[in-house]
Amino acid sequence: MDEASAPLRGVATLKTRTANPGTMHGAGRWWVLAAVTIGLLLFLAPFVLAFFNAIKTPDDYAAHGPLAIPQSFDLSALTAFWTNVDFTRKLINSTIISAATAVFAVLLSLLNAYAIGIGRIKGGSKILILLLIGIMIPQESLVYPIYYLSKSVGLFDSLWAVIIVFSVLQSAFGTYLLASVMTTFPREIIEAAEMDGATNWQILWTIVVPVLRPTLSVLATFFFIWTWNEFLLPLVLLASNNNQTVSVSMGVLNGQYVSTPTTTAAAALLGIAPTLIFFLIFQRTLTRGVVVGAIK
Amino acid sequence: MANSIERARGQAGYWLYLIPGAIGFVLIIFLPFIMNTGLSFSRWKGIGLPKFVGLNNYIKLINDAAFWASLEHTVAFVVAMAVIPTILGVFLAAILFDYISARFGEGLSSFFRAGFYLPQILPISAAGILWGWILNPFGVLNSILEGVGLHDLAQNWLGDPRLAIGAVMVVMVWLQLGYCLVVFMAGLARVDPSLNEAAELDGATWLQRFWTITVPLLKPEIFVVGLTTTIAALKVFAPIYVLTSGGPDNSTLVPSYFSYYHFFATNRVGYGAAITTAQMLMTIVLGIIFLRVQAHQTENGA
């Protein structure tokens, strides 16, 4: 509080000669609103353009250019791209990988954090430092050995390889977050349950998990989207077309599927659409939870 | 006595919970990390046995102009992913908080916040397709420029070695702004509203309040955002892979793409490993500075 009021004192002594600051804001606020609105429209223009051009005929595009509002309505670019890259398959792969990773990573984080945060095991803080270093190691430093190991254990080009790798990588962050939440968990509740003869395992599932459920679901949402968007490791580990994710399929788009501007727009639109839908559903969770995820 | 035995038994019980996590950590992070570090001292094509060559790869690396170019471009990405989005983000957060939220309601400012955050949740590869479509020689941007009669300004944005890095930087600012904005707006929620009201009554202009109240108050957030985005800038890969493949003429080459290229295109695995090790050392040094300064800050704050 003391610190917070220090700048105020600085301002208070400025005492500039002003007539009435209120009136200026009365008119000025509309200019600010207009400026921010124009800024946002320009910022989001790429999405709108992709949408407009994905539903045009190539002739319409050629005649009126990319900025014109569609004069025609044609889904053939979208359907052509969808069938050419077998987009259904990509969606299924991405969903399986992201959902399984979210579940496993939350479970791993929960178990680790329970031992460190509630169990207060010796060396817990050292484990956290180790995990933090693990988080900071760039994936590039792990990618070749992981590629090599996955080949030698027969998991190369399997969805499982990606699920296992990301469950562990995401759980490093999840453990770090959940452990700090669990250290603030009221001890009396745990001790009371221990008095009643509850085992560690029972305490975890009947007391800790129900209390932490909101945090766990935010964490799972983040793991899902982070995994959905991951690029380098799935690119390396999933070689065959049939196993690729949405994100990887966008990166390796072959020229033949995006030879015209309208099919490229369609490709971009389809790549964006799934996460756009998650965003609309989880908007609040994501924009609030990002503060929690700031360390990542 | 009985109590302490009980305690010990309880502690041992908790250790069991670490087993799955520990196995995962060893197999997916620790072992690959040790292997990669070892490989950086070897010559290896990915088959047979690696041949120990000492510091050879590192010596080659220091004399490789492409490596130094990739570091130079990393600085450009720190500017595009950390410096510019942080500055823009603080400014925009303050405008949304002081004007839009205070005078038009919180709903509208949340709407703007969500809008600017949108690029953050896209697969970067999909964002890359979108921007490739806009920036290619026959793309949207050039159509606009030609449409308004500025034919001379139309360029091969991603294909010209002088322009490509700038074009990719613009895309990165677009991707990163939302993250900075959201963190700063959450930070602004801590501000005591009476602080701003008092300053306003005293006749301080918005800019004066911005510099004397908003920026000092957001210091912890600016610090965290600055460092996390800097670390992200050191590992940028997907935008380069999708937009330019490091080209033209290595003009957008970055360490991550450089190592990927040697791992999987030239099969010079040892050399690729040396690149990633150098890259990782830079990241860890940054991370240690981050933790030190943060610890120092919280100590002073308490």
From TrEMBL, chain A:
The keyword Lipoprotein does not apply. Coiled coil: none annotated. It comes from the Bacteria. It is found in: Cell inner membrane; Cell membrane. The keyword Signal does not apply. The gene is ugpE. This is sn-glycerol-3-phosphate transport system permease protein UgpE. Part of the ABC transporter complex UgpBAEC involved in sn-glycerol-3-phosphate (G3P) import. Probably responsible for the translocation of the substrate across the membrane. Pfam families: BPD_transp_1. Belongs to the binding-protein-dependent transport system permease family. The complex is composed of two ATP-binding proteins (UgpC), two transmembrane proteins (UgpA and UgpE) and a solute-binding protein (UgpB). The chain crosses the membrane at residues 30-55, 91-115, 127-147, 159-182, 203-228, 263-282.
Automatic annotation (TrEMBL), chain B:
Residues 71-292 form the ABC transmembrane type-1 domain. It is a multi-pass membrane protein. PROSITE patterns: ABC_TM1. CDD domains: TM_PBP2 (cd06261). Keywords: Cell membrane, Membrane, Transmembrane, Transmembrane helix, Transport. The chain crosses the membrane at residues 12-35, 75-99, 111-134, 163-186, 222-243, 269-291. Signal peptide: none annotated. Its main location: membrane. It is found in: Cell membrane. Belongs to the binding-protein-dependent transport system permease family. This is Sugar ABC transporter permease. It comes from Devosia algicola.
